[in-house]
């Protein structure tokens, strides 16, 4: 078995540092994408309160708040999730590559 | 709102949905042999089945009926309910899904013990799980009572008792493996039952061009009779001529009345007749005309609408990850990677579903606005097809919607009951199959009794309160437990107790001693939407107490973290054995009664 892999499994200092790095990378990724969701969707109530005329805009026969929350919001959530899954798996791949070096 | 005789097709639809659920349950029983099967379906369920099952379990009465009702009543701001219910899975995916699966724990209490290494935190988490399940079951049963009352004219307790009996029977007989099939089936049934009427009504709407954003109140097209079944305060914009038999503002009335602009109290038992084309008064606190209804910023009745909206967003975004019946499903994924794929698929399925209740809510304001008077707008989805479309088409759609509603109650309450029974049977009883069954019966009776005795809120609002409790207790435990090495048992307990007390007290006050939202100011808003206060409090308490008890951080926290975060292919993780069930678990996980509390060193 590769030595770095054993380090991770046996909790040596090197192994522990590697796991800490992985946890930090995954948490950073999750927080960044949560922030993206908050900025894209969570900011809407404040935005509509600050710029009321925005809530009056009609697109495709629907008022903007209805279009954004009733329809567009779900694909946006799905897109963020898809991105997260891809990037989280890449983080894990990087970690695995490191242990197999 | 009686529709006259009992529609035969609707009865057939109701019975078919219930029978199909029971039948699939019985079929599943033949596959469910061991206790491991009962609890986590042997961890062999593929992401596709699992995602449909999670979505089927998650889309409760609150989603199927409640969302449309709230949209009809409160308009643009109510869209945050479905968006929040879907966004909760993003929170779950980002912070919880894969590490929780890799922890190998099979319930939240088990996770608490795995992570914090003490038995008493497990017990505390178990109590929280049981409370959340019971609170969540109440609106499901009440929704069933409302549905059968509206569709068949049965007294509410009949629906509550019928759905309760089916759910308890199914869970006692089948356990979770069968439930996985049932739940997946329920998702597709619910989607069809809500999508088809929404699409048909959309065609109807497009064929009869009508606008829904003018500064006029909603109007009835035909002469409409409204029965007031619970006392309600309505607001009238312009002087309104109605025929009334009963009590208005405490005075007995019989015959034509001119309602002056302002608020009026209609007593239970009052009958109101609106002439064709007459504007409809709406319950106090809801936007009275269509223009303000279509604009955001009105909240859900009462003061400080912005606070209400953000508190709701917080509760739903963080609450989903704390729902025991959702979490238990994540343990049925084979590994952390499939847990992520499952969450992704759930977001797609749930998001697709929520497009339709929103549409139905809009149509409800247009076509059955009389519901806005009674405050029972949860009935909107059930009454829409029959009111708008005449003949066989309407009846068929009404029957389809009825079966979808029953599917919603059955699937969510089965899932809740499985998780509460699983937790109770392994943590309180001895964890044998018999104990699971006893626990299921006991855990079904408590919410049944509660739902018959407490006030019924809008379904989505009750569920929103339960989300607030979950977001203030189990969510911080999971997030800090997974991502912060410094969490201690004392800290976790302090946070769960504080968050649970604050949010739980709020929920109790709302149900037992409601504050009038129009006169309540801050107290009413804080009690109705506690998450914005209770969630930060819970996190703060967990962090501060953990820092104060820093020395009791488990010594092997590094190993725990490796197991939760390192991909399975590196061979770190192992599933924890399922309680004391030696018989059912596979190969290496053999265990004997009594050592289920032992933290294995693996």
Q: In one word, what is the shape of chain B?
A: globular
Could you state the CATH homologous superfamily of the largest domain in chain B? Sodium/glucose cotransporter
The strand order across the widest sheet of chain A is 1-2
Structural class of chain A: mainly alpha
**How many angstroms separate the termini of chain B?**
62 Å
Give the topology string of chain A: H per helix, E per strand: HHHEEH
Give structural notes.
Chain A is built from four helices and two strands; from the N terminus they run αααββα. With 101 residues, chain A is mainly alpha-helical. Chain A is 80% helix and 4% strand. Chain A starts with a helix and ends with a helix. In chain A, strands 1-2 form a two-stranded antiparallel ribbon. Chain A has one domain. The mean pLDDT of chain A is 85. In chain A, β1 (58-59) and β2 form a beta hairpin. The longest helix of chain A has 37 residues, at 64-100. Chain B is of the alpha+beta class and 602 residues long. Chain B has two domains: 8-192 and 303-363 and 378-557, Sodium/glucose cotransporter (Up-down Bundle); 224-279, no CATH class. In chain B, 65% of the residues lie in helices and 6% in strands. Chain B contains 22 helices and seven strands. Chain B has helices at 8-29, 35-40, 47-58, 61-74, 80-95, 97-103, 108-116, 119-152, 156-207, 290-294, 305-319, 324-330, 336-367, 371-374, 380-388, 391-427, 433-453, 459-483, 489-512, 517-528, 531-548, 557-565; strands at residues 224-227, 232-236, 240-248, 251-259, 262-266, 271-274, 282-283. In chain B, β3 and β4 (251-259) form a beta hairpin. Chain B starts with 7 loop residues before the first helix and ends in a 37-residue tail after the last helix.
């Amino acid at each position: 078995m590769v030595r770095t892999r054993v380090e991770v499994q046996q909790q040596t200092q090197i192994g522990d540092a590697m796991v800490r790095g992985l946890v930090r990378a995954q948490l950073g990724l999750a927080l960044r994408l949560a922030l993206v969701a908050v900025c894209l969707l969570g900011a809407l109530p404040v935005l509509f309160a600050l710029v009321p005329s925005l809530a009056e805009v009609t697109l495709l026969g629907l008022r903007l708040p209805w279009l954004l929350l009733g329809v567009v919001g779900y694909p946006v959530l799905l897109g963020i999730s898809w991105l997260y899954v891809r990037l989280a798996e890449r983080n894990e791949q990087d970690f695995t590559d490191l242990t197999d070096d | 709102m009686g529709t006259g005789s009992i529609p035969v097709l609707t009865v057939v639809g109701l019975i078919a949905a219930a029978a199909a659920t029971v039948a699939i349950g019985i079929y599943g029983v033949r596959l469910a042999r061991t206790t491991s099967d009962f609890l986590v379906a042997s961890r062999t369920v593929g992401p596709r089945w699992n995602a449909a099952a999670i979505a089927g379990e998650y889309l409760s009465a609150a989603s199927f009926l409640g969302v449309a009702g709230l949209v009809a009543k409160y308009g643009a701001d109510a869209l945050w309910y479905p968006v929040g219910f879907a966004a909760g899975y993003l929170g779950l995916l980002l912070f919880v899904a894969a590490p929780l699966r890799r922890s190998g724990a099979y319930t939240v209490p088990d996770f608490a013990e795995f992570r914090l290494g003490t038995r008493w935190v497990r017990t505390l988490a178990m109590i929280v799980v049981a409370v959340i399940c019971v609170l969540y079951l109440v609106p499901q049963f009440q929704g069933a009572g409302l549905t059968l009352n509206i569709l068949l004219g049965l007294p509410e307790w009949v629906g509550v008792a019928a759905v309760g009996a089916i759910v308890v029977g199914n869970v006692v007989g089948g356990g979770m493996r069968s439930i996985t099939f049932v739940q997946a089936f329920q998702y597709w049934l619910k989607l069809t039952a809500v999508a088809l009427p929404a699409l048909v009504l959309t065609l109807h709407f497009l064929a009869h061009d009508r606008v829904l954003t003018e500064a006029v109140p909603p109007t009835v097209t035909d002469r409409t009779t409204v029965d007031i079944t619970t006392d309600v305060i309505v607001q009238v914009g312009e002087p309104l001529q109605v025929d009334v038999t009963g009590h208005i503002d405490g005075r007995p009335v019989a015959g034509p009345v001119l309602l002056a602009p302002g608020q009026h109290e209609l007593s239970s038992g009052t009958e109101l007749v609106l002439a064709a084309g007459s504007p409809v008064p709406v319950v106090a606190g809801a936007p009275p005309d269509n223009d303000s209804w279509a604009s955001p910023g009105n909240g859900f009745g009462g003061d400080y609408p912005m606070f209400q909206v953000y508190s709701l967003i917080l509760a739903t975004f963080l609450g989903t990850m704390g729902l025991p019946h959702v979490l238990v499903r994540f343990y049925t994924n084979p590994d952390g990677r499939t847990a992520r794929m499952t969450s992704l698929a759930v977001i797609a399925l749930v998001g697709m579903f929520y497009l339709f209740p929103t549409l139905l809510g809009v149509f409800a304001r247009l076509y059955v606005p009389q519901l806005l008077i009674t405050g029972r707008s949860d009935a909107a989805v059930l009454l829409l097809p029959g009111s708008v479309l005449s003949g066989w088409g309407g009846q068929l759609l009404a029957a389809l919607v009825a079966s979808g509603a029953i599917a919603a109650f059955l699937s969510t309450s089965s899932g809740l009951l499985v998780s509460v029974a699983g937790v109770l049977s392994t943590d309180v009883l001895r964890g044998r199959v018999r104990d699971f069954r006893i626990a299921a019966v006991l855990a079904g009776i408590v919410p049944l009794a509660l739902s018959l005795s407490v006030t019924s809120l809008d379904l989505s609002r009750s569920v929103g309160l339960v989300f607030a409790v979950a977001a203030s207790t189990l969510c911080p435990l999971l997030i800090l437990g997974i991502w912060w090495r410094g969490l201690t048992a004392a800290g976790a307990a302090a946070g769960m107790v504080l968050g649970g007390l604050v949010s739980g007290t709020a929920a109790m006050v709302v149900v037992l001693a409601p504050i009038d939202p129009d006169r309540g100011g801050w107290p009413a808003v804080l009690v109705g939407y506690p998450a914005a206060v209770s969630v930060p409090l819970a996190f703060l308490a967990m962090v501060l107490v953990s820092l104060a008890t820093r020395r009791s951080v488990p010594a092997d926290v590094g190993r725990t973290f490796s197991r939760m975060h390192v991909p399975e292919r590196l061979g770190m993780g192992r599933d924890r054995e399922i309680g004391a069930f030696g018989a059912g678990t596979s190969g290496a996980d053999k265990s004997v009664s009594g050592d289920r509390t032992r933290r294995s060193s693996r």
